[in-house]
């Protein structure tokens, strides 16, 4: 959350006249002074950005990226999801999802102007995270009534995010870390931490079965050639390894044991 105050200075100005690092946005050619945020807003902004950037469906996201849908407008959402290319300069158009953090000192009139300009430029969802008073998130979408969600509820952005986002994950550290972990696991092909544990258990059982089979073959005086050894390593079916172990108790050759 950056505290923005519109300055009624002469205009019109254009986005190309602003440089990266200038403390301004532009609204219809007029400069909007944007000041640094406080500690609470800074912490929440980092948490929310991490949660959204790690969602498995997200390829591009950024913090304070400047978007210019037209020459006289340049808006920088606290967090933008989508349309954040890895190139220098302002971004043309608008992000599909924008998140704003509103805390003490927020200029409400300016915030509503910013939301309206983002939606008009093509943003599909604007989430305003309220840090003052009861924690809540206001959801703005084109052509729909304002919705407000609180703790225990979840936010969705179909076509932009894979996962629903618990309201608390946008400002609470523990909730944000839990969702971020889930997202990162899904990016590696695991649906949950329990799924990782299950894979670990299965791998442990397979490793044990392979070791027992090799030990039994060794006790019977049978030697594995390279191809047979590799075949055991490739086998990921526990029932097959158990069958080979039973056969190894009576087989006369390794070929008979592994048939």
Automatic annotation (TrEMBL):
<dbReference type="InterPro" id="IPR008538">
    <property type="entry name" value="Uma2"/>
</dbReference>
<dbReference type="InterPro" id="IPR011335">
    <property type="entry name" value="Restrct_endonuc-II-like"/>
</dbReference>
<dbReference type="Pfam" id="PF05685">
    <property type="entry name" value="Uma2"/>
</dbReference>
<protein>
    <recommendedName>
        <fullName>Putative restriction endonuclease domain-containing protein</fullName>
    </recommendedName>
</protein>
<dbReference type="InterPro" id="IPR012296">
    <property type="entry name" value="Nuclease_put_TT1808"/>
</dbReference>
<feature type="domain" description="Putative restriction endonuclease">
    <location>
        <begin position="19"/>
        <end position="160"/>
    </location>
</feature>
